[in-house]
Amino acid sequence: MQVADKNRNRRDILVLALVCGVCQLALAPNIGIGNGRANLALVFTACVAFNVGGRTGVLAGFLAGLFFDLSTTGPIGLMAGCCAAASYAMGQEGRGRMAGELGASVVEFSVAALVVSLVYHAAMLMVGQSSSLLDAVALRALPTALLTIVSFLPFAWFYSRSTGGGPSLSMGGRRRGGGSHLSTRGL
Asked: Which residues are within 8 A (CB) of 57 and not within 5 positions of it... i.e. 6 or more apart?
């Protein structure tokens, strides 16, 4: 019998949100290729979607996208919608998918990162934030997707090393074994 620990999930999501938020604000603006910057909100969205999924994943994606929108000069709500849709698409196949499926998770995330980057920068072209289609695609969307995929790799590796549901980020660690803490002696 496996017991779901919702407080552990919330705590792990909060720690992941803090790590990705700090990296989005401190590292992403300083590391770029062309006009592209890594999107750590999408990395957070994917980690939650692959490991938790469902409504929690979509809500986490929306809030991460909203955080991204509030920390950039783009239209508010654009990345929130993109991340929520990406989280819904990535979270369809169940929870704990990154455990042992590093290659499949990276491929699915790569497709999602490319699509989200293209949609976001095409919308930025429509509102006048980009000067041309070449600028929007070649100098913004493709480098953004590449940097986002590279940023996702350490998180994917970290979560793929777990036995299911992602490793515990708490200080106490996690018990290994059958998942049940109940003794069966005496039955």
From this structure: 45, 48, 49, 87, 88, 90, 91
pTM recorded for the entire structure: 0.81
- Distance between CA 168 and CA 46 in Å, rounded? 17
Spatial distance between the Cα atoms of 134 and 88, rounded to a whole number of angstroms: 30
4 with 180: CB under 8 angstroms? no
Instruction: Pick the closest to residue 24 from 5, 44, 49 (CA basis).
Output: 44
Cα angle, residue 147 at apex, residues 143 and 149 outer, rounded to 5°: 115
Considering just the CA atoms, what is the radius of gyration of the chain in Å? 18
With contact defined as beta carbons under 8 Å apart, do 151 and 30 qualify?
no
- Of 119, 109, 113, 102, the C-alpha closest to 143 is 113
pLDDT tens sequence for the chain (187 residues): 455 666 777 888 999 999 999 999 999 989 989 889 999 999 999 999 998 888 999 999 999 999 999 998 888 999 999 999 999 999 887 677 777 678 888 999 999 999 999 999 999 999 888 889 998 999 999 999 999 999 999 998 888 886 454 444 444 444 444 443 333 344 4
DSSP for residue 140: I
